[in-house]
Amino acid sequence: MxxxxxxxxxxxxxxxxxxxxxxxxxxxKSGRTLPHALSVDQVDRLLTPPAVCSPLLQRNYTMLRLxxxxxxxxxxxxxxxxxxxxxxxxxxxxxxxxxxxxxxxFGIPAKEALESFLQSGRPLILKGKRSNTLFVTSRxxxxxxxxxxxxIKEAARAAGIREKLSPHTLRHSFATxxxxxxxxxxSVQLMLGHSDIATTQIYTHVDEERLKSIHKKFHPRG
Length: 222
Prior knowledge:
Elements: H1 2-13, H2 40-47, H3 55-70, H4 74-78, E1 85-86, E2 91-95, E3 101-105, H5 108-126, H6 145-158, H7 167-180, H8 185-192, H9 197-200, H10 202-218
Antiparallel strand pairs: 1-2, 2-3
């Protein structure tokens, strides 16, 4: 439909036709897809590292833990500067879309993982090299988005999660779980870095679906 509208509009401007038969045709809008979120149990399995971790695996699971704890975008996570992480206050300083700065808190599990990574894993990865990036590769550079996609898929396989996962899945899970446990929409908007609260409101639909399923399951006339 879109191609035909554009084609006849082109023909009309070129004088090849006197009318555009598609000018009054409205293209139907596709429904908005609700974001998929993992259950709390799935997140716990995904974030649990193996008993023996190499420095690179320690880095990977620290990234996963921080991602779920903060809801960062994957581009924000992989490019996070070392100086952006405040361990004493449990905040990370993020420069998001449109060069907008925001402060996002993270919890004790993420803090402990970061402290351990900075003390042991990161120095072993760098091997004497210097880098201003928090999560470095063996070359001392920032990780690519594609590589982190691979990391989250590898972690999902290790956790026995067969669903298709992406870094955004943990971002969705972060927002959904916050709202499920009573966080207000405005606070979630600030932490996600959404410029418009309408973007954040999609997560309320996820929670509405959860509430409807609970009502249907447990209410005698559900």
